[in-house]
Amino acid sequence: MRGEDLENRGGGTGEVKSRANNGSYSLSSSSYMIDDSETRWTSWLVPVFVVANVAMFLVSMYFNNCPKHNPGNCVARFLGRFSFEPLKLNPLFGPSSSTLERLGALEWTKVVQKHQGWRLVTCIWLHAGVIHLVANMLSLVFIGIRLEQQFGFVRIGVIYLLSGFGGSVLSSLFIRNNISVGASGALFGLLGAMLSELITNWTIYTNKGAAMITLLVIIVINLGLGILPHVNNYAHIGGFLTGFLLGFVLLPRPQFGWLDQRNLPAGIPVKTKYKAYQYVLWFISIVLLIVGFIVALVMLFRGENGNDHCPWCHYVTCVPTSRWNCDKN
Fold first, then answer.
1. What is residue 275's DSSP assignment?
2. Residue 132 bears catalytic tag
3. Residue 134 CB partners (closer than 8 Å, separation 6+)
4. What are the Cα distances from residue 253, in Å, to 33, 38, 91, 248, 286?
């Protein structure tokens, strides 16, 4: 990362937008009436995601090879080619921005003008440094394992990946001069799914009010941290909105006792699997997801700048203060 910012590529003005998460996502499940037939899954996909992210970070450090291009200035030089870039260039203890860019970091020019749309996916497996990686992986373990145990690897895997993609798309619409890496969009998607899961299954929870307040506080705090420098809050918001809608689609629970109706005598009224409002939320969410992704992708690959349509939106990712200038952030 050449220059004094986290990224300053020669004559470029960009920097790494790490999708950092300094807050805690941990939230205990609210109590609900459990059907005897409800399956409790073994969590294996979330640990695989953690291993994959760690492996990709090691790969990025291997290819970075700090001693080769920055001899004598690397941090933790005893690590050899795995040593970190100087802290004044990357305070997160990681590789250079040029290395991240080569390995698939999100950058508008390459996605739109050079047709490298795959970067919308690869960027969520890269991290700007050890601090960035550890914060995201701890959050993934705290949130993801509980959700996977309750809803299975397929649904949680879909939410994680599509939320990460949604965060990347929104980032590309608004950020043009910086590169972006990190799994925070996917993590915020899991947070959003937790919120919509609580809403759509509201009637089966007992201490739902406390759970709702706790979850909203966690979400507000983490989104609030996104206004700090070098943090890509567009990825957080895009991932959160995607996960929030997917939660209504993938995480509704059947009405309590629904499966037991198979043993009822003929002629007794039978409940529907889901309540009417769950079907309504499912339909609305499906429509919003499809329309939202189509509109966003069309705008992105037509080269439109989201800031032209929303001139105040830049404040959601950086609020200028006497300590930093958002024009340079």
1. -
2. no
3. none
4. 11, 10, 44, 10, 17
- Which member of 127, 132, 230, 236 is catalytic? 236
Which residues does residue 106 pair with via DSSP β-bridges, in sequence order? Answer: 180
- pLDDT digits over 199-224, tens only? 999 988 888 888 899 999 999 998 88
Task: Calculate the alpha carbon distances from 215 to 140, 210, 228, 236, 247 in Å.
Answer: 16, 9, 21, 16, 15
Name the catalytic one among 184, 196, 285, 314: 184
Alpha helices (runs of H) in 66-129, residue ranges in sequence order = 66-69, 97-103, 108, 119-122
- Rounded CA gap, 306 and 103, in Å? 26
Whether 26 is a known active-site residue: answer: no
Intra-chain end-to-end CA distance of the chain, in Å: 15
Task: List pLDDT tens digits, range 98-109.
Answer: 999 999 999 999
Phi (first) and psi of residue 106, to 5 degrees:
-75, 125
Measured CA to CA, the distance from residue 319 to residue 76 in angstroms comes to 34
How big is the CA angle at 95 (ends 8 and 85), to the nearest 5 degrees?
Answer: 80
Distance CA 191, CA 216 (A): 10
Measure CA 323 to chain center.
Answer: 27
What is the pTM (predicted TM-score) of this model?
0.86
Quote the pLDDT of residue 254.
87
pLDDT digits 0-9 by tens, 28-55: 445 444 444 466 889 999 999 999 999 9
Contact 8, 15 (CB under 8 A): yes
Return the HEC string of 281-302: HHHHHHHHHHHHHHHHHHHHHC
